[in-house]
Every structure is written in C-alpha cells, then in structure tokens.
Write a structure and sequence with these properties.
The protein is an all-alpha fold and about 190 residues long. The chain contains eight helices and no strands. The termini are far apart. About 20% of the residues are buried.
C-alpha cells in the first residue's frame, strides 16, 4: 500500500508536470493493478474490517477510467495526488506503532507523528481536495463519478474523524492512567 501510494504520487506528479502520456498511462495501469489486486486480496482473505476499501477501490477505478480517457485530466490528477499524499504519514505512524515507541517525547514519539499525520491529512484530504468539493458536479456529466468523488471525500472525512478520535483517546487514556496511578500511590502512602 505504501509502495503504491509513493510510486503513484511520484508518477502522477511527473506525468502531470512533464505532460508525459507514457508516464500517465503507466501510473494509471499501476494504480488499476493495485486496486484490483487489493480488492481481490480483501475478498479472498475475508477481511471484514477492510471491506469498505472495496467501495473505495471501485469508485477510484471508475475515476481512473476518466484519467485514462483524458477527461478532466488536470483536476482528477490533482485529486489523485492530494488523496495519495494525504496517506504518506499513515505509513510512518503504522510502522512506528508496529515497532514500538522507544521514546515518550520528542521527534521519535508516536504521539508527535500522529499529530503530524492528522495535520497533513487535514491539509491534503480536507482542504486541498475540498477546494473542488463545490465544483465537482459541474465538471462531469457522469453521476457515478460525481457521487464517487463526493463519496471518496466523505470517506476521507470519516477516516480523519477516526484519526482524531484515536489522538483524543491517547490523551484521555493517558490522563485516566495517570489519575489511577496517582490514586494507587496516594492509597499506598495513606496505608503506611
């Protein structure tokens, strides 16, 4: 997933700015291959929690069809780039959580990276992608693409809400744990 996101973003940026059709087609086929493979993998392994990604993948495949045909290429390319860029910190946070938090504070802490992930996500998925929110319906004649773009946006908002809840729970749980630890220490001191 991280490999696809990074390569897809770089290729689409290069294709966009160099106006290179071959790189654009490579990016499209690479992304289509990833979304089809990932959907198949989710279904094959019966990952219930990830099944919502199948909707995301199907909508994205339909949007990519427009990229392939060169319809509204500039806007759709920007949306794809914003969407993929918004995911970059997610992979780092996932890695840090998997290997464990060796430092509680500072640059290497998971908390720092989760905050950066949230800010980065809001910038790319909510603000930059959201700039097109009011005009998407005027850009396309295909209602499936229009609904798909809105659906992808709202799925991103929902996912961002989940990130925000995770950060909130980190603070709440830490406070709760600290209060419980302080209460236990106070009870021990009183009993002595």
């Amino acid at each position: 997933s991280a490999f696809h996101s990074v390569l897809c973003t770089l290729n689409f940026i290069i294709a966009f700015y160099l106006e290179n059709t071959n790189i654009r087609l490579y990016s499209i086929f690479f992304s289509c291959s990833y979304f089809i493979y990932d959907s198949y993998f989710i279904l094959l392994k019966n990952y219930k929690a990830d099944q919502v990604f199948i909707i995301h993948h199907l909508v994205t495949l339909h949007v990519i069809e427009y990229l392939f045909n060169g319809l509204n290429y500039d806007i759709l390319t920007r949306l794809v780039i914003c969407g993929e860029l918004s995911n970059f910190p997610h992979y780092l946070v996932y890695h840090k959580m998997k290997v464990g938090n060796k430092e509680e504070h500072g640059f290497n802490s998971i908390k720092f990276w989760r905050h950066l992930q949230m800010a980065w996500f809001v910038l790319f998925r909510v603000i930059l992608y959201g700039q097109y929110f009011t005009s998407i319906y005027t850009l396309f004649n295909d209602y499936i693409v229009i609904l798909g773009c809105y659906l992808l946006y709202f799925m991103g908002i929902y996912w961002g809400y989940g990130q925000f809840k995770g950060i909130y729970k980190d603070y709440y749980n830490k406070e709760k744990i600290t209060r419980v630890e302080n209460t236990i220490v106070q009870k021990e001191v009183k009993s002595e």
